[in-house]
Design a protein that fits this description.
Blueprint: H1 41-50, H2 59-70, H3 90-96, H4 111-128, H5 136-146, H6 148-154, H7 161-174, H8 183-196, E1 214-215, E2 230-231, H9 234-244, H10 253-258, E3 260-262, E4 273-276, E5 285-291, E6 294-297, E7 306-309, E8 316-322
Antiparallel strand pairs: 1-2, 3-8, 4-5, 4-8, 5-6, 6-7
Helix pairs in contact: 1-2, 1-4, 2-7, 4-5, 5-6, 5-7, 8-9
Length: 330
């Protein structure tokens, strides 16, 4: 949360994520009032309770925001000085931090204080911008990122690409279908949460494994080397995100397609993989579908993990669902 700065987050997304009819359960409320996102057990009850602070805040939206801000890391510290699981700037914490657990201290590093503080701050800024035209939750999230004054100044989400994608990425996560408890649904939520938590990570050719970002190698078709860059390439990001769900995939995009079951048009769901190329052996790119025609991917050298539209590349080959594998990385 960077309420005191206009454009400082390293989200790296370049696509506008349209969420009006997101994911397959498009008839459901777009921001579910039930917590369907996969969150660390230690924070589940905190998020469920804090997500009832005001009508504009739901448990899913709060969980998505914390995923985007810190990946649920209570010790996160950003280059611009934002701290804790909810990434409060010090000045904002001074005015909006609360003693959530009643221990007599307001500690930005303590999730028991920071999570309810984030919900309370969201509600406060929702009130600040309540008369601004447009979607109230979008305006609230934009104000959390860029400041209420900017939302008031521009009469809605300000024209900062990073703020716009911040808002829409959170809404995409928060709009995942609720109520499903099958292993596949749970794993898909874990996959998306893991990938979204890496938004802003540099692209590294050959980089990434089941444990996270890593240095890559040489060379991409254009001659780019990842040997000095710690990050992910497209299939490395997929490998990492699915490993978080206990599913270990092969290393390359083509091998990952071979380890997946193709999905018929109209039957795709969040967590499925999006493959690009002209044949199974010619697949050169893969992303993780998040719904609404968008994916999280590591696009190419010089970029960062981000949200992209499916038509960012013109040779979409297929969408496919990885077959469950719980063995070690192959």
């Amino acid at each position: 949360m960077r309420a005191s700065t206009a454009v400082t987050i390293g989200v790296g997304a370049t696509a506008a994520v349209v969420v009006a009819a997101l994911v397959q359960g498009a008839g459901d409320s777009p921001l579910s009032t039930a917590l369907s996102l996969a969150v660390p057990t230690a924070y589940k009850s905190l998020i469920e309770d804090a997500g009832k602070t005001c009508p504009e805040v739901t448990p899913n939206l709060l969980a998505a925001l914390l995923t985007q801000e810190s990946g649920f890391n209570p010790k996160a510290h950003s280059p611009v000085g934002a701290d804790g699981i909810a990434q409060f700037m010090p000045s904002t914490w001074e005015t909006h931090g609360i003693d959530g657990n009643g221990d007599g201290k307001r500690n930005v590093w303590d999730p028991e204080d920071a999570i309810p503080s984030a919900a309370g701050y969201l509600c406060d800024i929702a009130d600040d911008v309540k008369n601004v035209p447009g979607d109230k939750q979008s305006n609230m999230l934009a104000a959390y990122n860029a400041g209420s004054n900017k939302v008031l100044e521009y009469g809605g989400v300000p024209p900062y690409k990073e703020t716009q994608n911040y808002v829409r990425s959170i809404q995409a996560l928060a709009s995942q279908p609720s109520g499903g408890k099958t292993a596949t649904t749970t794993q898909a939520a874990t996959v998306i949460n893991a990938a979204s938590g890496r938004i802003g990570t540099p692209y590294s050719w050959g980089g990434g494994n089941a444990n996270g970002p890593s240095t890559g190698g040489c060379c991409s078709p254009a001659g780019s080397s990842g040997a000095s860059i710690t990050g992910f390439d497209c299939s490395g990001l997929v490998l990492y995100a699915y490993a978080k769900a206990g599913i270990y995939l092969p290393r390359t995009a083509a091998e990952q397609y071979a380890a997946s079951e193709p999905v018929k048009p109209g039957q795709q769901r969040p967590g499925d993989l999006v493959f690009y190329g002209d044949s199974p052996k010619g697949i050169h790119h893969v992303g993780i579908y998040i719904g609404g025609g968008y994916m999280i991917d590591a696009a190419r050298p010089g970029t960062k993990v981000r949200v992209d539209p499916l038509d960012a590349l013109t040779d979409l080959y297929a969408m496919a669902r990885p077959l469950p594998r719980h063995n070690k990385e192959i």
